[in-house]
Structures are given as C-alpha cells and as structure tokens.
Amino acid sequence: MIQETISGWQLGQWLEDAKAECLVLGISAHEVHWFVQELTGLDRLTLRLQTFKQQPSVPLQVPWSELTQLWQRRLTERIPVQYLVGVTHWRQFTLKVSPAVLIPRPETELIIDLAQSAAENLDQDGIWADLGTGSGAIAIGLADIFPRAEIHGVDTSLEALAIAQYNAETTGFADRIQFHHGSWWQPLDFLQGKLTGMVSNPPYIPSNLIPTLQPEVAHHEPTLALDGGGDGLDCIRDLVETAPRYLRSGGLWIVEIMAGQGEAVAGLLQAQGSYSKIKIISDLAGFDRFVIAYLK
Ligand SMILES: C[S@@+](CC[C@H](N)C(=O)[O-])C[C@H]1O[C@@H](n2cnc3c(N)ncnc32)[C@H](O)[C@@H]1O
Question: Which ipTM did the prediction report?
Fold first, then answer.
C-alpha cells in the first residue's frame, strides 16, 4: 500500500548520497537502485536514466523515514538488502526471503538447467526431491522445468518450510510441490527406490571458514544453511551414502559444492560404488560448482 510520496529531485539527491556511502563501504552501488526499485513503484530503466527526477512526487511503498532507516541498517549492520526488502529475484521468480532462509544465489540458478539437460533421457514426469529446500527455490525451479513431475522439498527448519510453502503458492506451484519437515531423506521413506532425481544445495562451508565470510553472510544468513562441518562435506557425505536407497536405477544425483570440493566429492561417489557417469561441473566463473552422477 502506498503510504507516502517524495519528490523526484529529493530522491535523486538521496540516491547520490547512498551510492557514495556504498563506495566507502565496498558495497555494490547497484544495490541502491535495487533497494529503491523494491520500495517504490519505479522500474530499473527509470532509475538508470534518472527520468524520475522530473516527477513532482514518487510513490513509496513504505514511509520515507522507514526507507532511509532500512538503508542505514544495510550500511551499519551489514544486513543483506534482500532481507531488508523481504524478497529476492531468482530465475524468473520473485521469492520471499527472511533471515530464516539462505538467499538463493544466482549461481544456483544453473542447477535447474543442469537437471533439465542431465534428465533428457530420464522420465521427466517422475518424482524429484530438493533436499535442504530453504526458500523452496530449487523445488520451484524443478516444478517449472518438469511440468508433470511430482516434487518433494525437505528441510529441518520449520521457518524455512513456511517460506518455501508461501513461495510455492505465489509462484503457482503449490499443487505440484509437497514440503516435508525432517532430515534429508528421513521424511521421504515412502519413496525408497522411486526417485528420478535428487537435487540439493546442502550446507558445504567448512565450519572454521564461516567467521571469515563477508559479514552479510556470516552474521545474517542461517548457520544451519552454511555449516558443512570440519571439511564442509558432512552433509554431502550423508547424501552420497543414503541416496542409492531412494533413487531408482539410472536416477540422477546433483549437488552444489564449493570451489575446490569437486575432486573430493567425485571420490566419495566413486568409493560408494553405486554411481556411474560422475562429473564435476564448473560455474560461469570457472570454479567447481556442481557434481552430477547417476545411480547404476
Ligand atoms: C545452502 S541452503 C540451500 C537452500 C536452498 N535450497 C537454496 O539453494 O537457496 C541449505 C539448506 O539445507 C537445510 N538443512 C540443513 N541441514 C539439513 C538436514 N539435515 N536435512 C534437511 N535440510 C537441512 C538448511 O536449513 C538450508 O535451508
């Protein structure tokens, strides 16, 4: 609901100041536009071309005082802008986020395309699982690319599952995705041997690295979503060991990993003995980012 307006000229002045503050703190100046875009009715092009400066009044979705206070919290507390505005954009979706969920990352968008191409010769109408669903992003992406598939999303966090459910509803996929509370496969016991594919972006950061991450991540994103134990591979080890019981023969196993973990994860899959066609896949920046395998 529009509660207030501000003159285009005043907004222009504020934007200039906010961008200068970003420069000092090493925050991308794009964030200011993104922040204003979410909290006003202005679109990206209008902000970039600054045509709003001639507008006598720009409508706001929150009072001006609240908008500026939120921005101050961005700068002083290093709260991610997505948590401040309550949404993020991921693939073609606008997803609700809160500090209860990891902010879905642009690099994770690729896992959906990978699942699609890796599943070309599989039964795409089958049953798919997104283990560690968080905001529900991957489950929603899978529902989108596999229009007749049955999707299951699992998380141990009830707060995350409430957000995932909300996102499934607002994106129109609620009837295609079932969310379950529990640890990895445990709530999917009834699907043993039936899964066409498992897609997961599990916690994979080594515990001792978490305090060294940028403050937006280390202080504000849920540790449950980040911490992969001593070497970062605790959850992945679990998924390597347990997935063969749930995947059907030929079923797909895809996991997001951290740069440098590719060889170790491929080694775990190899040693487990039930997988074939194990492949490490790099992201657009050229770092190990995903590992794919198929159940023999
Ligand atoms: C890295 S986040 C990924 C969230 C989302 N899938 C994404 O890609 O944006 C990892 C998720 O795994 C969940 N998680 C951690 N341990 C889990 C477990 N034992 N069983 C199920 N989910 C778990 C966390 O709550 C978090 O939502």
Answer: 0.99
